[in-house]
Amino acid sequence: MQYVVSLFSDRDLYDEYKIPSEHITNSHWRFYYRMLEDMIDKMNINKIDEMNVDLYVQGRNDKFQKFYKNCGGYDTIQEAIDIIETANIGTYYHEVLRYSAIWKLYKAGFEVENNWEDIESLTYEELTNYYEGMLDEIFSNIDMGQDKVFDIKSDVRTMIKRADEGVLRGLPVASRALNAKTNGMALGNITMVGGMSGVGKTFFTLNQLLPSVIKEGEKILIMCNEEDMGKWQQEIVTWVINNKFEKHFLKSRFYQGDFSNDEKRLLKKSVEWLEEHIEDGLINFVNFSMYSMDKAIRLIRKYATQFDTKYFIIDTLKLDNDIGSTVTENSWLQLQQNMVKLYNVIKPSENNLHVWVTYQLNKTMKNRYLDQSALGMSKNVADVVSTLILLRDVLESEKGAKGISVKDKHTIEKLSEDRQYMIAFLDKNRQGSTHEQVVWEVDKGRNVMKDKGYARISQDY
C-alpha cells in the first residue's frame, strides 16, 4: 500500500522506482498501480491528482469503473497519502520486492513456512543471497568451496593433457595479433578493456568477441548499463554488412532513416545472415535499468548454472547505482571490492567462467603511454584481472614518416596519415607478454578493424 500511494503522492518517484505490476501481490493495490502505469506510460499524464484520475476512470468501461468504486475510488488513495511518508519510498520499494519474492517462493514449493524464523527479518538482497546459497549448495559438488591441501605432484599428467587439448587456451579473440599476446580468454579469468569516453570500447568489444562467439558456437551474455539492445543490434548489423558482405554501410544511417532500396536489401540480407548463423540463445542481452554488481553476479550465476553460459560481458563497469546506493569517499573502495566479488564467482575453483569488462579511463590523457595509472583513483580495480587492455586512438603525430613504426611478421612500416588507427597497451597480461602494443587500422563508422601489427611506444617520464 505505502509503495503505490507514494507514487500517487509524488509522480516523479514513479520514474525511479517503477516495477512490473505482478510484484504487487494485493489485487486492489495492483489495480491502482496499473492505473498509474497506464496514465503515465501510455497516456503521458504527468500530473496525478483526483481530477485527472477521475477523468481517466470515466474513460474506461463499466466493469473497470465498478471495480474502482469497490476499491474505494480516489478516497482510498487520499486517505493513505495523509499517513505515508514518501521519504521512505526506498524501504517501501524493497518491501514490495521482498514479499513478492517470498510469495513466488511459496508458490514454487519452497519451504517458506518452515524457514520463516530465518527469513522473516531478511532484506530483499539478503533473501536473494539466502536462497541462491541454498540452490548453490544443492547443485554444486559437495566439496566445492572447501579449501583442500594437495601434493603439488597430484594430477600433473592430467594438467599436461588438458593443456595439450587446448582446454587452457580459452576462447580466441578475432584479432590474431592480440590473440598471439593474450592467448584468448581463458576460463576463470577477467579481461578488462579501458578507454576514454568515445574511444570505442564497445566497438572494440564487438569486433573482438562477436566473430569468435559465432564461429565457435559459444554462448555469451551481454550485460549493459549504458547502451540499449537496439544500439547493439545496430552495431551487429553494421558489422555483418561491412565484414561478411564487404559492402559499405555506415551505422549512422540508423539515425537518419529513409533507407534506399539498396540499403533495404543489404539490411534484409544481414538479418537473414544473423538468423542463419546465430542460433537461438547464443547471444543474450540485458540492459540494467539500475546497475549493481550484485545484480550482475546473480545473472552470471543463473546463466552459468541454468544455460551453461561460460562467457560474459559487462559494458560498462560502474559504481553501483541501484536503489539505496550512494556515492561517498569510499566508493572507489566499493568498486574494488565489487571486482573481488566478481572474481570469486568466476575463478577456476568456483564456476570457472570468463568475464570481459569495459571501463572508462580518466577524462584527460596525460601520457601517450597508457598504464594502470590511467585508471585514476580506481586503479586497484584491476588487481584481480588477468588481462588489462588500455585503448586509445593513434595520434596524428604518430602517423607519417616521423611517426611510430609498426611491424608484422615480414615488414616494418609507417602509418598512413589518411587513415585511422587504434592502439592497445597490455598493462597486465598473465597469459603473455606486455612489452609491445597492438595496432589496428579501424573504421569505427563501419565496424571494421584490421590487424596492422606491433609497435613499441616509449614510456613517458
Automatic annotation (TrEMBL):
InterPro entries: DNA_helicase_DnaB-like_C, P-loop_NTPase. One of its GO terms (biological process) is DNA replication. GO terms for cellular component: cytosol. It holds the Pfam family DnaB_C. Residues 170-435 form the SF4 helicase domain. GO terms for molecular function: ATP binding; DNA helicase activity. PANTHER family: REPLICATIVE DNA HELICASE, REPLICATIVE DNA HELICASE DNAB. This is SF4 helicase domain-containing protein. It comes from Dolosigranulum pigrum. The lineage of its organism: Bacteria, Bacillati, Bacillota, Bacilli, Lactobacillales.
